[in-house]
Each structure stands twice: as C-alpha cells, then as structure tokens.
Amino acid sequence: METTPPRGRPAAPPLLQVDSVTLAFGGVRALSGVSFEVQPGSITAVIGPNGAGKTSLFNTISGFYRPTGGSIRFRGREITRLPPPERARLGLARSFQNIALFRGMTVLDNIKLGRHAHLKTNVFEALAYWGRARREEAELRRDIEERIIDFLEIDHIRHAPVAALPYGLQKRVEMARALAMQPEILMLDEPVAGMNREETEDMARFILDVRAEWGATVLMVEHDMGMVMDLSDHVVVLNFGQVIAQGTPAVVQADPEVGRAYLGSGDVQSLRAKLQAAARQGVAA
What we know:
Layout: E1 16-25, E2 28-38, E3 43-47, H1 54-62, E4 69-74, E5 77-78, H2 84-90, E6 92-94, H3 107-113, H4 123-128, H5 132-151, H6 167-180, E7 185-189, H7 197-214, E8 217-221, H8 225-231, E9 234-239, E10 242-247, H9 249-253, H10 256-263, H11 268-284
Parallel strand pairs: 3-8, 3-9, 6-7, 7-8
Antiparallel strand pairs: 1-2, 1-4, 4-5, 9-10
Protein name: Amino acid/amide ABC transporter ATP-binding protein 1 (HAAT family)
Keywords: ATP-binding, Cell membrane, Membrane, Nucleotide-binding, Transport
GO molecular function, one term: ATP binding
C-alpha cells in the first residue's frame, strides 16, 4: 500500500491521526486496524464500496462510536475516549449521511444550534438574557447572518422551516450548522448524495471555498468519483473495514486492489477508465 503526502503540500505535522483503529459490534468487525493521517489544509476523501465501513469510521472519529482498539489524535492530543461535545469544542464538526436537522425549526435556528458547544453563558444569564448572554447572542447572530448564511447563499430561506426546503438546500443548511461550530476539521458524510448535477457543482464549490476562505481542513466520505478525484488531495480506500489503498487520486486510480474492491474481479482497466472519465467530467464542469 503506497502513501503519499497531499498534492503540492510540504510534509507537516498531521492535524488528525487515526492509528490502528478497530471497531467491533459483537462478533462483527466494522473496522480493522484502520490507519491514516489528515494534513492541515487538505481535502481528504474516504471512499469504498457500500458496507466498507466509511460511516462507521466517521462515527468513531466524531465520538458516536467508541473503538475497541487503536487511537485517534487531534493536534497530537489523544481524543479516543472523549465524548462528541468535547470533540466539537476542540474543532471537529460533521454533517450526516441522512440529514439530521430539526425539521420544525427555521434555517436560522438550526444553524445557531451549531454554536452552542462554544457558548459560555450560564443558565441564569441565559434565563435573564442579560450581560454575557445578550452579547453572545448578538455576536452569534452577526457571525451567522453576515458570514455563514451569505457564504452558502441561503439568505432567502433563513426564516423558512427546514421541512419546507428541497433536499439540496437541506444539505446546505446542515453544512451551515457544521460551520457554525467553527471547525478546524469539517467532516462531511456524503455531501452530494441525492443531488442533481447543478447542486453537486455548487456543493463542490462550497467545499473548495471552505478551505480557501475559512482555512478549514475537510474530511469527507463520498461516492461521486468525479468529485472525489477532482477535489481531493488525499484519498483513503476502505473495503471490509480495512484500508486497502491510500494516496493521491492518481495513486489510488492505479491501484489494482481498488479495482477488485469495486468490481469484484480483476477488471482494473474498466474501473480506471470509469474514474478517469468521471474526473475529466468534473474538471470540464
């Protein structure tokens, strides 16, 4: 298995280190000895066939699952046993494969919930709504309205209930809520699943801009190969809970193990042609 640093970036201390992580449910191993690193400022994609363990890996990194072995370090700090709220406060924010918004609440209120992990107001200040509570609320609203909502181009729906929005806009609102958490690593679980071509192109643009304008590192699970090959600096391939390849998109495309994982045969050329065609289509768009 060949590993390479992200394209065009010098070696740097990794922002996230996943080291020999194993996850088991009873006698079933969802993850087995998974190891990889995420460099600061990179876009890292985790790919693999259905059932490969991608979402289990995301749930383990974000703290929803506790691994049965191995370690996870963020900025060199061991976070393997930290609960999800603590990881959020440190700078890990994520979206979900299945949209996890409060459908009866407005877009603005859903986004504001993302900042709660960082609020310092105590219960008495919040109930009285004075002093620090009032200042934090004003600062939060200004940041969300002037930065996040404007950035994701959702000003026209800020007061709309989430349940009334089409799927593509709901995915954008979920990304906005994650950005409200002020992440150092933005974890996106299938950010363009179920989207049409125009929505996919918009989301790809937002992901690139999150890195360029916000300075966030992106870790994503995605099935859209054109998007993965076009955006990613580093690709990690899972199959049956194990890392079978990782490296630049070019390295991954050339790895015969990836072909066998996706096709169940040795027809590597077919998969390579499919990936290259998807990547060219993405670049052309």
